[in-house]
Structures are given as C-alpha cells and as structure tokens.
Design a protein that fits this description.
GO cellular component, one term: cytosol
CATH superfamily of the largest domain: Aminohydrolase, N-terminal nucleophile (Ntn) domain
Family: Belongs to the peptidase T1A family. Belongs to the EF-1-beta/EF-1-delta family.
Strand content: 15-25%
Order of helices and strands: HHHHEHEEHEHHEHEEEEHHEEEEHHEEH
CATH topology of the largest domain: Glutamine Phosphoribosylpyrophosphate, subunit 1, domain 1
Helix content: 25-40%
Radius of gyration: 38 Å
Number of strands: 15
Organism: Cordyceps militaris (Caterpillar fungus)
Number of domains: 3
Protein name: Proteasome component C1
Keywords: Elongation factor, Proteasome, Protein biosynthesis
Shape: elongated
CATH class of the largest domain: Alpha Beta
Distance between the termini: 110 Å
Largest sheet: 5 strands, antiparallel
Length: about 575
C-alpha cells in the first residue's frame, strides 16, 4: 500500500518518516511522484512537528512554475507511492536459523543471491534512465550590437543580424536603446543549443557585418537544462521565471540537508557593455559614464565665469519652468565662505549637493587653519570629490560642470558663525616664496579634472559662449574692468540663449571684487540697477545684430535678383 491520506496526521507522519532519510519521494531527483504528493497536501506541514516534510514541501513549492517540465508519470496518485512499496532484500538470518549457524560453512549461496539482486537493480535502473527524456543544454543570451555612428542604418543592421540562421538558434525580441550623441544600439534576445552553436561563433558572424557593426557584447546569459520536448521559444518566454527561481534559497530548518536538484537553471554574471559600468574602460580608453555625465551637464542652463584683475563675475541662464515661478526665489549660484562663488550647469540636485560639499570643505578648513579656504584649494578638493564618483560601479559621476570663482586676500575677513577670521592665504599662513591673494577662476568637470581659466562656460550654450569669450582679450586680466566683465557676461548669455532658442529665461548674476572694489572682497549679487542696465545693453546689441543680419540678407537677395 502507499501513503495514507496526506490531509490527515497519519499521512503527514508517514510522509515525514519517509523523507527522514531521503530528499525526494522516489529515486534521487525531482519527479512527478513528488508533484503528486505535494498536490495531495492541503497546506505546508508544520516545521516544528514535521521538519522533514516541511523541508521537502518548501523545496517542491519553489519549482511550482515548472511542474509541467518535471519528468515522471503524471497519471499516478500519491497512493501509488510510499516506503512500503520499495523492496528491501534482507541478508540476515531468520529466527529459525539460530541453531543452524555454520561458522565454517560456505556463503556462496548468499553471494549468488546478492549478486542476482544487484544485477536486477542495475538493469531496472538502466531501463528507467533510458526511459527518461534526455536533457538538452540551452542558453538564453542578451546581445548588445553597437553601430559605428549615428548615421548607421539600424533597420538594415537588424535585418543582417536576424539573417543568421543556424540549427539550434532561435531569435527573440529586440529593441533599440539610445546610448548618447544620437547613437542607438540594438539589444536582441536569442536562444541557442550549447552542443550545436558557440556564442563566440554568433558574435564573430555578427561582427563580420563591418558596414554596420562596430562591436557586440553579451550583457545577459542564462544556462538551462530542459527536456527534449521543450521548444526553444518556450525558454525565452520563461526567462523571468528561470532567473527568479535560480537564486540561492536558504532553509532555516535545523536538520535540513542540502541536496541536488534535477532542474538546473543558473544566472551567469559575465562581462557587460562598457557603457553600463562606471568602473571599467572601453578598449579605446573611454569611460562612457563620464561622457554621459558631460552630456547631462550640457542640458542645463548656460553658465559663464569671467576673471579680471579687479574681480570675478559669475552668470547663469535659468529657464523658467512655470509661469507661476517667482523671479529671484530659486538661487542657483552658491556662496562659499563669503569670498567664493560656485555655479553649476546640469542636474540641479547634483549641483546643490556639490555646493553643500564645498561649504563643508570650507568649514573644515576654517576649523583646522583658522582662516578662510583659498579658492585654489577649494577647487582642487571639489575636483577630487567628483573624481571619486568615477571609480566605482555603485556610484555615478556628477551630472554637472562647476565654475568656481573667488578673490583671496591678505586682509582678515570675518564670517558669521565660522571659526577663525584670518586671511585666505593658504594653510598655516604665508609661506616664503609663495604668492598669495588675487582673483581666481576654475572649472571642475564630471571626470574630476579641474583647470584654471580667465574665462569659461558650461551648459547648453557652452560652445557659443566659449567662442564669444575667445574674442575677448582676457589674458592677463588687466585689459578689462569689473564693470565691463559684468556687461560682457550678460551679453554672452543673451547670445547663447538666442542659439539655444529657449523662451522665458531668468538671469542670475553675481560678482566678487578685490578688497578695494565695490564688494570689498565678498561674493554678492550684482545690484539690480546694474544688472538691468547690462541686460538693456545686451538686448540692444542683439537687436542691432539682428538688423545687420537682415540688411546683409536683403543685400544678398538684391544681388541675386540683379544677376
């Protein structure tokens, strides 16, 4: 007889006793015998009362999504199984043989019987093994196929890739993914039989389409063993299940013994695309995540920094996000230690975080050296902080470019709430042979690179603003006054805004002068009257430029008509 009713205590107790010395109901692997007994149970057995049955129940439940793929006879019920149905030959003497023991007799008859039983069991095992469906090793891959540039015909590329046809190869779904600068890559799923096709052969054939393909990478790989009746297309449909149920499970039962499962599905972590990780370089030496961070910074408003001997001017174009926005309420140029200004173009939260970091560095410097932090040291520390975010796969680079401008002076400038009020002349005071004080302007990039400039720009209008700055004679700082720098900064913002075609902008403008200048060495906003006058002059210059362009175009049209 088989198991009694498994929804009663006697049945569960029999099941628990059966599983005390084995991992499965029948043989040494998961089969339909386990499925039949599992379905006969109304709920999970108590782990405290039936630890072996509870351990077995949880293990079988983890394979429920793939019950149909488990080998075995599905027509049998739980009553067809049980420990009593397994014949266990006895080789010990019977009770009636106690007086007939011959210690010097021959045991050839017992050896022959044991050999016969062993051969019979071996033959039965071979028959059962031959009857089982043969498992086929298959793999589900996710490939990234990258083109040469943004001019590559992606439709033709996909047609060429799918044109590869092999026995044991099935193409799955695909999609185009933008990777930056107008370039998209093809990501495609495919299923292969491991014994018939090599993954490297597929990649080599894809990369042979040199007209379209620059490179290919395997970004996902799942190895599975399934029966011969399973279709290749069914594997791709079950891919999320395979990944979910291939993770390591932990059984907390004290007497649980690990055992092997016949369902072998494991997720293999292998090399991903060079643009998916921040901690690796591409073969040509690129860190693509840094490149993408630069692109993010170029989506922000245009910011400008101009340095002259009289001071530093910082300007920022802020795009109005709503008609209800209050002008001047959302400040984007931060002050650090009173004598330094920081403006960021790119992701606004990243910029705010960087400004707070600058203030922490300034406060730490004051507590240590009892003096304001020099602009050069602050810029260097911010660059180092940004560079740390380019070295780990668990971090991403800052999506901003930061312009740092300041005026260092040998005069003592107190800052409310800070420790110390000494001159901003470097750690430990003045050093022999080192020049202190003056105006400074730096820009820190997402890579962590920090360079000094007489004039620099960032944001969406960076290229236009940079071209305008290069027209000015800024080198040396003695050919431009601070007021002229204010007017030029506003004018360049207007020129860059015209090219970007943004509507509804707000201008934020700050400056820092030397101690004998209008701000007395402090970073403050440019007075409203001066800012409005600079904007009026910039708008007038823009109108005159537009009229000149109209006259030039009209003259060209007249010349064409005369011809």
């Amino acid at each position: 007889m088989g198991f009694p009713k498994l929804n009663e205590e006697t049945g569960i107790d029999a099941l628990n006793s059966c599983l005390a010395t084995r991992s499965y109901i029948e043989f040494y692997s998961l089969s339909q015998a386990d499925i039949s007994c599992y379905r006969a149970l109304e709920s999970a057995p108590s782990a405290a009362q039936y630890p072996h049955a509870a351990r077995w129940y949880n293990h079988i439940a983890s394979h429920e999504p793939v019950f149909s793929d488990i080998p075995g006879d599905t027509s049998k019920t739980y009553q067809d199984y049980g420990p009593e149905l397994i014949e266990r030959p006895s080789f010990g003497p019977s009770e009636n043989d106690d007086n007939d023991v011959d210690l010097f007799g021959s045991d050839n008859e017992d050896d022959a019987e044991a050999a016969r039983i062993r051969e019979q069991r071996l033959a039965d095992y071979k028959m059962r093994k031959a009857a089982k469906p043969k498992a086929i090793a298959k793999s589900v891959l996710i490939l990234d196929v990258k083109p040469w540039d943004d001019q590559t015909d992606m439709v033709a590329l996909e047609v060429a890739v799918r044109g590869i046809q092999r026995d044991g190869l099935v193409w799955g779904t695909s999609k185009l993914i933008a990777i930056g600068y107008g370039i998209t890559k093809l990501q495609v799923n495919l299923v292969v039989e491991d014994d018939k096709i090599s993954t490297q052969d597929i990649q080599d054939e894809i990369e042979s389409f040199e007209k379209y393909v620059q490179s290919s990478d395997v970004v996902g790989f799942v190895s599975v063993h399934v029966s011969t009746s399973t279709k290749l297309t069914d594997i791709e449909a079950k891919l999320p299940i395979l990944i979910n149920y291939s993770t390591l499970r932990i059984n907390t039962t004290s007497d649980y013994q690990p055992c092997a499962s016949s369902f072998d599905a494991k997720m293999t972590s292998i090399g991903t695309g060079y643009d998916l990780l921040n901690s690796i370089y591409s073969p040509d030496g690129h860190n693509f995540q840094v490149d993408y961070a630069v692109k993010a910074s170029e989506n922000g408003g245009t910011s400008i920094g101009i340095r002259c001997n009289e001071g530093v001017v910082l300007a920022l174009e802020k795009v109005a996000v709503s008609k209800l926005s209050k002008p001047g309420a959302n400040k984007r140029i931060g002050s650090v230690d009173g004598h330094i200004g920081v403006v960021c173009s790119g992701l606004i939260p990243d910029g705010s975080s960087l400004v707070e970091r600058a203030r922490d560095e300034s406060h730490s410097w004051r507590q240590t050296f009892k003096a304001p932090i020099p602009t050069t040291d602050l810029a260097s520390r911010l660059g180092n902080h940004m560079q740390v975010f380019t070295m780990s796969s668990s971090l991403r680079p800052f999506g901003v470019m930061a312009i740092i401008g300041g005026v260092d002076t040998s005069e003592e400038i107190g800052v409310d709430g800070e420790v110390g009020s000494g001159p901003a002349c470097g750690a430990g005071g003045k050093v022999t042979g080192k020049k202190h004080g003056g105006t400074f302007l730096y820009m820190a990039e997402p890579s962590g690179q920090c360079l000094g400039y007489w004039g620099t720009a960032a944001g969406r209008g960076r290229q236009t603003a940079k071209a305008e700055l290069e027209k000015l004679d800024l080198e040396g700082g003695d050919k431009m006054t601070l007021l002229q720098a204010v007017k030029e900064a506003v004018r360049i913002i207007y020129v860059a805004q015209k090219d970007s075609k943004e509507k509804g902008i707000e201008l934020e403008l700050t400056w820092i002068s030397t101690v004998d200048g209008p701000t007395k060495g402090r970073h403050v906003e440019v007075p409203k009257e001066l800012r409005e006058e600079a904007e009026r002059l910039a708008a007038k210059a823009e109108d005159e430029s537009y009229d000149d362009d109209e006259d030039t175009n009209k003259k060209d049209d007249d010349d064409k008509m005369e011809e």
